[in-house]
Amino acid sequence: MPTTVFKNVLYRAALPFCAPGCGKKPLCGVSGHDLNYSRAYVHLIRKHHVLGSAAYLSSGNQSAVILTSSENPSHKPSSDTFFRVASITKSATAALVMHLSDRGILDINIPVSDYFTSDAEQKALIGITLRHLLSHTSGIIDPPDLESSVENGIPFTNLLQTSRRFDPGSAFHYSNLGFGLIGCILEQVLHMPVSTVFQEHLFSPLEMNATLEGCSIPREKIMPVTRVLPYRKGQDMIVTRLGSSILNHPDPLHHYGHTAGSMYTDILSLYKLFSMLSEDSCTYISSDSLNAMKSKHAVYGSISPTLSYGLGLLQIADPVISDSIVYGHQGFAYGCADGAFWDEKTKYLLIILNGGCSEARTGRLGIANRDFLHWAFRKELPSWSE
Q1: Model pTM?
Q2: Domains of the chain (ranges plus CATH)?
């Protein structure tokens, strides 16, 4: 994944020559409102080498679902195909936490060490609150071996011995480990596997077809993910090792991987989540909790001057995309470049999930997501009311 300006330049230069294409006719289905700028959309699908996708557009009571396919590799989703949505899971996690906070089960402002009993756990977490974890201001950085540590059952107390680099609340540093620790807290407080917490307290109330356990879904129902650059034929990711087993019991020391990016869901279910978050008030979380999620808690700084962060929500202030704030989240993992966003003023909403896409970025925002947002919020959706 290109993470520096220089690497992004090299990545974008190699993309047209080294990445697989989606084929001559990638658009394979549009339901709902007709598209007025479908050719521009197809151009972006080709430009960013999107290998099969499902997108949801909405404006007021009008909506459209757009499906695209690819030929080699062969990816062809339907509206009920499951996608692993990577870091978009963070928005779902934040909504769940705020729901439990409204019910008095969690308090986002007290030290999370208060929820644990052992000296090692309390010492590792001292001074950190759920608000810090939800806003990436906990002072925790990701160790280079985070994925293997999760898979090999290394307790989070071991990782935090070297991963706490800043005082809580003193700096913004995007942290999958920090967000993953929320799963440990959920298990510690509710005494059930984090997957069950999500099912009972988020997925069922919102009537979402979703899970944190990829192995519970028939493999043919999951969109494979293929990294477009470097492209290696036949090396698709369908279910990660983290999602390959059922969570039968809570294990707060070790289940710190799921809440950062392990949600599998379909395009219609993800719309239920983000349409709820885009409302000014809803029945799932209180107005105060929703406002807390959308409040600016941290900024990316010079690396991405258009980006800020709330509680589990990315905030984009980019005039190319919109004249108002755009909220949502993006997800990068194993080659996908997903996005789920809404415009605060117009309430336009765009969700796009894929099985492989260009991972090029401008700062920390995916260029594909920026281009699709410009198309949706500046061209397609405004045309629906003309």
Answers
A1: 0.97
A2: 5-317+327-334+363-383 (3.40.710.10)
